Amino acid sequence: MGYIGSDYPQSWPIKRGNVLMAFDNPKHYALDTTQGALEWSSLVPSSPSSPNGTVHLGPYKQPFTVSMMHQLKCLDVIRHETIRGGRDEDGMALARHCLNYLRQMVTCRADLELESFQFASHKNPIDMHGVYECKDWSRVYEEVKKNQEEHEEWVSHR
């Protein structure tokens, strides 16, 4: 693989197993607080030469975005534009891109996990206290951060 043009793998070939994750309504990641904004922005690792979760692969250090990082960044963009009330056309154009991208990714992944329906009179009828088997996202974070550190080192010696 030369990682030039269309000569690159469809997926980043890192090993990751499965992990169990308990879903709930967390106290973190608030929509409209300073702390929530910090938590949302910290979900996507960045470095000076690798913003927004960018990784650099192959002998020529070609930049790529890992889909998971793109999705997390898009959630933060939508959160931010929701707070701003759609006053900025450029921001809204990005939010529209993100909403459509997330729709496509959800459809593409076609998650078949069953969610327990309590009953319609509940404020939150879907039971979000289940435990789900997920891909190990911590391995993705480890590899993105490692790649970004290696790229910073590579850039510093150029």
UniProtKB/TrEMBL annotation:
<dbReference type="Pfam" id="PF11807">
    <property type="entry name" value="UstYa"/>
</dbReference>
<protein>
    <submittedName>
        <fullName>Uncharacterized protein</fullName>
    </submittedName>
</protein>
<keyword id="KW-0560">Oxidoreductase</keyword>
<dbReference type="GO" id="GO:0016491">
    <property type="term" value="F:oxidoreductase activity"/>
</dbReference>
<dbReference type="GO" id="GO:0043386">
    <property type="term" value="P:mycotoxin biosynthetic process"/>
</dbReference>
<dbReference type="InterPro" id="IPR021765">
    <property type="entry name" value="UstYa-like"/>
</dbReference>
<comment type="pathway">
    <text>Mycotoxin biosynthesis.</text>
</comment>
<comment type="similarity">
    <text>Belongs to the ustYa family.</text>
</comment>
